[in-house]
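2.7 Reproducibility. Because tokenized structures are sensitive to small changes in the input, we list the exact sequence used for Carboxymethylenebutenolidase, including any N-terminal residues retained from the expression construct. No trimming or masking was applied before prediction.
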Amino acid sequence: MGERVITLTGINPRMVGYVMAQTRTEDFRLDDGRALRLTYAEPDGVTRGGLVVLHEARGITDAVRGMVAGLAAEGWLVVVPHLYRGESGSAEVGHDEARDKVGELSGKSVLAATDIAFAWLSGRKVNLDRIGVIGLEFGGAVAMVVAARRIIGAAVTIAGGGILEPLADGLPALVEIAGDLTVPWLGLYREQGDDITAEQVEKLREAASTAKIATDVVRFPFESAGAFEAWQRALNWFDAHLR
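Resulting structure tokens (single pass, no recycling of outputs):
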């Protein structure tokens, strides 16, 4: 299979991992007129289920592509909804432009985008209980919003910011919605290297523990071994809950 790629934030997606999967991008339209640009990758063999990958603030970066490759190599049908509209869609952008694009989003718009991605998977015979969502950094925060507002199989947040203060005016702070989780949710946070502090993560853990659903929050070391362990935890979470 080649080298294993670790696709967690801060780790080069080609360092230790999977052969990069071929991705395709299409403009997908529902019968009711809703439309969105999607990027997706298909597994080589039997499809185990579907995963929606939510991109980081800078768009579909190499880290996001690495995550897509790793998940597809594990047998998942993977789709990335382009959360940013416009001609360029969610192509990778710089930090300044990313802040502007995030500021234009709302809870309603990101939920609408993921709903279209769920419909795309359903059209490929993947039932909702076999669909999960996983997000990286900004996308990790969005994944938790989805996990508190939709009924699917499972959700994973990787380094999702906006714990105490929302990332955009139209998005909630994560501690405010953690108790409303309706989907088994795993939060993965690095021990160092982020603006996210241990105290913030602990407050999120406490808030999530009040939800009437399985939750877990894990902090992992920045080095490759820690990132690989976190990646395995994400895979195991989906294995346990998407059946």
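Helices lie at 62-73, 95-103, 107-122, 138-149, 174-177, 198-208, 224-241.
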